[in-house]
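Next comes the chain:
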Amino acid sequence: MSREAPARFCERRRVRFPPPTHLVVLVRGERHHVEALREEIGEILAPLGLRLSQSKTRVVHMADGFDFLGFHIKWMHKRGTDKRYVYTFIADKPVRELKRKIRALTHRRSQVPFAAVLSRINQILRGWANYFKHAVAKHTFNALRSFVWWRVINMITYRRRMTWTALRRQFKGPRGWRQIALDGVELFNIGAVAVTRYRWRGLNISTPWAA
């Protein structure tokens, strides 16, 4: 039986198929070891009705790094030492997408109330930061905090026709710039999000292929 009919049947009842599964396999060895293992993985997945996408499956060296679910994972030297570790950074694409959303929300000619704009920005930033806070993300968070701050400030100055002096009088205190708050909503400070690391549990996770 063709799979097209059941697919249309499910879609009419608002049932969606799950997105493609992402799989990362780390191998210690040469490229030919990886190629042989890729064939073995394909044989394991076949009985489950799954297959590896030939166009999206790549073989890369950890020193070159690779992107996975929004993260950039790379094996590199630890600063100040001769030891190498695997680091998880935020990939470039999620940062570009976040900036695109912030730009769309903070257009200077927008007539959306400030409270609604800040509320939506806060929702996006909180969700984004909670997802990426386990990566090496502090520098990225601080850079995004500056980016968002300037976007909101430029929107305020244009829409309220404020001079820089009036802006400083409203948002700057004796200890520096205060968090932007408009109509009872305060802008979320993504730079203040604490970055934590996942506890490594590699040898404690049982698998059917454990030796």
The radius of gyration is 24 Å. Residues 152 and 202 are 43 Å apart (CA to CA).
